[in-house]
Amino acid sequence: MESPMFTLAGMRPIPQLDHASLTLTLDHLAKIPTADYIRELPSFGFPSLRAQVIHIFNCEAFWSTLSRISPSKTKTLPATRPSPKPANSSAKSASEP
């Protein structure tokens, strides 16, 4: 039998680690001049560092909330990506007319 990917004991420190990482991130962001924080950056994932940080915090809030939802209620949540389709499911085989 395979061992589970995550154990309860292994997951317990995750919120504390997340909080510590968030504190470090906010401390670092506080040192960036406002002009640099809001400056538009060409070829960056989001238009500015500010927009990227907002995106990251929104994702963190979403996953934190989702982790507190009962598994029975998550069945109603939309899938994050479509289910894979079987290869050549609509193609006819070479032997079919």
Could you explain the architecture of this structure?
- There is one protein chain.
- By secondary structure, the chain is mostly helical.
- Helices cover 46% and strands 0% of the residues.
- The protein has helices at 8-11, 14-30, 34-38, 49-67.
- It starts with 7 loop residues before the first helix and ends in a 30-residue tail after the last helix.
Blueprint of the fold:
Blueprint: H1 8-11, H2 14-30, H3 34-38, H4 49-67
What are the salient characteristics of this protein?
97 residues, mainly alpha, 46% helix
The residue fraction in helices comes out at 40-55%
N-to-C SSE series?
HHHH
Please state roughly what percent of the residues sit in beta strands, choosing from under 5%, 5-15%, 15-25%, 25-35%, 35-45% or over 45%: under 5%
Overall shape: it is: extended
Described by strand count, sense and barrel closure, the largest sheet is: none
Which stretches of 5+ consecutive residues score pLDDT under 50? 91-96
